[in-house]
Amino acid sequence: MRLNKPWLPLEDSQIERIGAQLGVYELADDLGTVLYIGAADARSLFGLRGELEHRIGSAARFRVEVNTAYRTRQRELLMVHFADHGRYPEFNTEQETRGLGRLS
Amino acid sequence: MQLEMTEEQTLIVAMVRRFVREEILPLELNLDPDTDILDPDDEARLTGLVKEMGFYGMGIPPEYGGPDMDMVTRTLVAIEMSQHRAGLYAPCYGVFGGASLAQLFEANDDQKDRYLYPTLRGEKRGFFGLTEPSGGSDPARAIQTKAVQDGDDWVINGGKIFISGADRADYGLVFARTSEDKGRGGVTCFIVDTNTPGFHVRRIVHTLRSAHYATELQFDDMRVPAANILGEVNKGFAIANDRLSRQRIPYSAGCIGVAVKAHELALEYSKVRETFGAPLSSRQSIQWMLVDNEIDIQQARWATLEAASLADRGEPFRKQAAMAKLIASEGASRVVDRSMQIHGGYGVTKDFPVERWYREMRIRRIGEGPSEVQSHITARDILGASLR
To answer: In this structure, what CATH number is given to the domain that contains residue A86?
Structure first.
């Protein structure tokens, strides 16, 4: 259920190695606090790689998961984050978290 | 059987068709190809339009505020509503409103006050909890979730799987075994509040539907008051079964709508796409695919409308609904598959809706009772009680 891929430094050299597939990603700060949970959907010109290029200033690390069920997987990760921390990541918008369910 | 639409039905179908083409299809051009939700502003605007048209909440009986629309007309409308990319599982993105849980219309007054009316007002959401890891095709025997009476309460232990919307629901209908009877006689339907201690949504279950997930539920010593029993103790299976039969008609209609649209796209594409100096439509192999599409759609349309007509007349329709579901889901799957073939490489891309329909339509041969169960129901009906 949780995204258990390794964290990578959010640097151009690392992002260039990411494929342009559909999927989900997490951005975190230096301490590993997840700041944003995103998805590269079918409108993304360059998939995960393209999405990571629009990074958040305070983010220092990222991790990705290639997944064609990117929409439900993003919702699942947001719900798991809420179950773990009692709140959504700082940079996820209200529109992204609207109507999400609860896990227990 | 009347094979001609009435003047009113013709008008209603034309209105819904225009709504889909003028309001839904343009919005879809800018949406994620896999989404099943609209931007909140668009959703509110379109819901308002549907209410103005008088079509909101078509599955709601008129005495509860729904439009007075018979099953045949609702079927015709459902065929129109699903003719867009998200249409199979999110017809018109839900702006026509739902029927809530139809079983609640049979609830007692107290239960209606607590669950039905708030649901109709949009204040509460419910889920339908029948299928268990032990099986969904034969729910009467597969249900292992147990409820044991303790004073004025019942204590429920067990779990459910493939349940839609439970993570966002305020309550749900949960079917549990309440007697040693292993068959349909020992099942009771409980209305369960999701904030009850012991109610857990354990995980998301991802499927071919990339915009929608199911959930797995766990019940640990979940205490439910006897006042929350829907109907009578040990008579819950009839509640589930009635829902399963009725649901097969709109389920079939959704399949037909998508097949109609996939066929329409394939027809258009075959006329403009050229190979070896001539349009695809001039090739006999393509013509035969298009003819087979036409036949599959016609068969499904008439079988489904016949089941709806029987339901409207108050006659038994279980066999016809089962056959309609079988014909529509299998036939529409073939139509989408052929339409994808005609589109060639473009058919498998997310640039065209056929790719999404192909994935989602596969579920239709399993959901709401797989094809083999529909055959079993039909066989039982024509062979009589000797077949168990």
So the answer is: 3.40.1440.10
